[in-house]
Amino acid sequence: MRKRDEKPRPAPHIAAKIITVGAFSLLLIPLLAVVIYSFFAPVSAAGGLVWRPSLMWYERLFQDQLLGQTLILSLQVAAMTSVLATLLGVTGAMALERAQFPGRRFLASLTVVPLVMPELVMGLASVIWFAFLGVRLGVHTIVMAHVTFALSYVVITVRARLADFDTSLEEAAADLGATPGQVFRTVTLPLIAPAIVAGAMMAFTLSFDDFLISFFTAGAGSDTLPMRLYSMIRFGLNREIYALSSLLIFVTAIGMGVSYKLRVGRKI
Amino acid sequence: MKHKGVGLALPLALWLGAFLVLPVAFVAVYSLLKRGAYGEVIWTLSLHNYARAMDALYLGIFAKSLMLAALTTGVCMIIGLPLAYTIATATKTWRSLLLAVLMVPFLTNFVVRVYAIRVILGVEGPINRALIASGLLTEPLMMTDSLFAVAVGMVTNYLPFMTLPIYVVLEAFDFSLLEAAADLGARGWTILFKVILPLSRQGLVSGATLVFIPVLGEYMIPDLLGGARTMLLGNLMTEQFLKARDWPFGAALAMILILAMLGSFAVQRALAGKGATLAKA
Amino acid sequence: MLEMRGIDKTFDGKAVLSSVSLALSAGEFFSILGPSGCGKSTLLRILAGFDHPDRGEVYLNGASVTKTPPHARPVNMVFQRYALFPHMDVAENVAFSLRLGKVARPERLRRVEEALALVAMEGFAGRRIDTLSGGEQQRVALARALINRPKVLLLDEPLSALDLKIRVRMQAELRSLQRRLGMTFVFVTHDQSEALTMSDRIAVMNRGRVEQVGSPQDVYERPDTAFVASFLGAMNRLRGHFAGPASGKSTHGWVDLGEGRRFMARLPRLQQNLPIGREVQVQVRPEKVQLAKIKELAPASAAPNVHLNEFTCTLSDIFYRGATVDISGLFQAQTSLVTATLLNADRVATGLCVGDLVKFGFCADDAWILSSEDSHEA
């Protein structure tokens, strides 16, 4: 929305460029290796095992029912987390940004805490609390703990958007005859929608990616995908993981591309 | 008028109360209790878990964890500043492209990301193969299952968290200040230390918080890359909880981590404030 | 038709408006003029219903609307930065209130077209807001506010974000639009020339108070207070002491300027009880000051019953301003500066040089006396 004239910026020092190239290699090479390795399988040959291009790991992947189950569970947990965190986060952000009530600042700083608190502490605190209350661990406890930390990201993105947009737009709508409810539906909501979508996607991703909090709060039999991946790695090498990761990279990249196109298309 | 909208805040407040404030309060309570013979909790209040944490064994683990966190933060700063600077000074198209690439690691699962580093550094990994093929080595280097591998994993994984806050500051930076400094006769290092560093201090400080604290509580990276011999705070806590089933001691360790977190906030606030005055001077 | 009575408003303990009372008649172009922070925008927001006064009432056609929420007031506003909805195109913006009111589509289209025609924006209906220039956005905002034919249109510095050329054209268009529609306009501005050009009446505000209400001529030529005098236009101030009322005319008084000089000037309504000897200023607009190089002043001043204040001084500066020339002279032992603004075409103005001895003069009716005590501000 804001247009800014840009002056040309000074070129960075050659050393900064070298470090940049190095840093990007550090970030990308492991991923590249995962993708490449996923397409190679060992074949017995004279003189031992030889690695040959193969889709073997992908075949195994699609036969692995347990992995499929954990994938579905992870998607379910992430979806529930995303919906709950978005509902709580959007109402909370509205309240923090637009309402006046005692304890507003305290609540605002409380929402930031999960951002900086180590996941380990979150997981551990949740499990102590659930044990004290006598709540049985399971999918529901994973979701509750995930919502608590994913919430912060929704609140922050939506609040930033609310703070950014001109309140005179809402006043203009009211002035033109919109009741408070109509103002929210016709002006506020469409304008913060990109932030809500971004927050919801972030909540989904964080939940889907989380290992440690699930590790603590999952009961027996409610393993999520990262937990399954972890135990596969711990108990024997398995290149199925690479095949799965490559697929995930592919799917997420497409998803991000599509959402980017959508946002650019609407240009809000 | 003054209290309008409390209803909207209520769900959030209740949720955070029930699933953040009370659980953390209970960590504090549990840290004062005792473990029973079968891993159950005995409700007698004492400080004995904290006393136990002062044992040389645990103090050593704290020290190692703190040093590793400090090292990771430092290395991330040294890489992150030029990286953020390069991105911030690129043209608009390049800038969004480079930022997207910075986010690419998040396309895949954290567990896989860490494991991939293990593969890269492994005996059969590409680095060892390249070194042997080039004739520099005859025997592969044992790089995994070491503190070195843990440090590589930490830096690789947390580098974006350092780079982004610095980038945000530099993006809004008035680059004509650099021209002004050069015009006044400042040269390379002087510009770096007197202009760029003080002005990107806010970003460095918040990046440091985003790296230091999570590294201190990291479990997966030391677990997959450090091997059995590398025990750090995160693994110790997880083990106390899930294997030794000594929840009160685990809670006491968590309290120490929370205190370290609060301490680093205080440092952050002090540094950020100082940064503001330094930038003016 | 629109009336405010005794409006008080404080923000964080700071009085923003104190006992503001104004009455507007139907079809009037009414400006609220004042420096930033004088409370004019708050007053407008109270009229729109966005803010509520601590005390006092707002009446519309005799009925109090003080507690009516903004969406229920038959009043519409044009915002300073237009506040056009970025997620809607031009037609959707203009039709916003019609869609809320569930006006049927054909009727809606017709009225949108009509409203756009009113502001000369036909053909822009499908355009996105961010493709419009500032002036075009301004017109769309105007069409959006006018489409429901509000009883009163509120305009919050609507021209301040525009370039000078477009601003001048929009001034004329707004004025003619208001005449054609016969609608009451409340126009808030800090630009005195804008207020003078466009308004039927002007309320000059300062520090949360209304200092004067009147026609542009009133506030410019017969200011009640030193603030009003100095806020509108340039001013000469000649220091002196009050020497008493003029004989036979309680509306005029004498001021002693030292060196044996006495000037006669009007005594404004609020200055009628000045004690003799009080430090005062004689104020006169530069364009009311005349000058002659050697002998007589312009014959207009020779009309009967008009007292002419005359004095000689040395020319210190000549500023060429295009259509006009400002000529300044020093007098009162070189401590006071008097400036006369003459048309460039004026014969007297040509051929003057700095250092020339020149006779200045102005009519008593064109000048006024203000106590120095309340002329520090602005």
Characterise the protein shown here.
The complex is a heterotrimer of chains A (268), B (281) and C (378). Chain A has 268 residues and is mainly alpha-helical. In chain A, 76% of the residues lie in helices and 4% in strands. In chain A, strand 1 (40-45) and strand 2 form a beta hairpin. Chain A is globular, with a radius of gyration of 23 Å. Chain B has one domain (60-280): Orthogonal Bundle (MetI-like fold), CATH 1.10.3720.10. Chain B is built from 13 helices and 2 strands; from the N terminus they run αββαααααααααααα. Chain B has a two-stranded antiparallel ribbon. Chain C has a 6-stranded mixed sheet with strand order 6-7-8-3-9-10, sandwiched between helices. Chain C has a 5-stranded antiparallel sheet with strand order 13-12-11-14-20, with no helix packed on it. Chain C folds into 2 domains: 2-230, Rossmann fold (3-Layer(aba) Sandwich); 234-374, OB fold (Dihydrolipoamide Acetyltransferase, E2P), CATH 2.40.50. The two termini of chain C are 32 Å apart. The relative contact order of chain C is 0.12. Chain C is elongated.
Question: Any low-confidence stretches of chain A, pLDDT <50, length ≥5?
Answer: none
What's the CATH C level of chain B? Mainly Alpha
- Shape type of chain A: globular
How confident overall, as mean pLDDT of chain A? 86
Tell me the total number of β-strands of chain A.
2
Beta-strand percentage range of chain A: under 5%
- Distance between the terminal alpha carbons of chain A, to the nearest Å? 7 Å
List the helices and strands and how they pair.
The complex is a heterotrimer of chains A (268), B (281) and C (378).
Chain A (H helix, E strand, L loop, with lengths): L13 H25 L1 E6 L2 E6 L2 H8 L1 H34 L5 H13 L2 H15 L5 H26 L2 H9 L4 H30 L2 H6 L7 H10 L5 H27 L2
Antiparallel strand pairs in A: 1-2
Chain B lengths: L5 H25 L3 E2 L5 E2 L5 H6 L2 H34 L2 H12 L6 H12 L4 H8 L13 H25 L4 H8 L4 H12 L1 H16 L3 H6 L7 H10 L4 H34 L1
Antiparallel strand pairs in B: 1-2
Chain C lengths: L1 E10 L2 E11 L4 E5 L6 H9 L6 E6 L2 E2 L10 E4 L11 H5 L1 H5 L4 H14 L15 H13 L5 E5 L7 H18 L2 E6 L2 H7 L2 E6 L2 E6 L1 H6 L4 H6 L4 E11 L2 E10 L2 E6 L12 E6 L5 E3 L15 E13 L3 E8 L4 E8 L13 E7 L3 E5 L7
Parallel strand pairs in C: 3-8, 3-9, 6-7, 7-8
Antiparallel strand pairs in C: 1-2, 1-4, 4-5, 9-10, 11-12, 11-14, 12-13, 14-20, 15-19, 16-17, 16-19, 17-18
Helix pairs in contact in C: 4-5
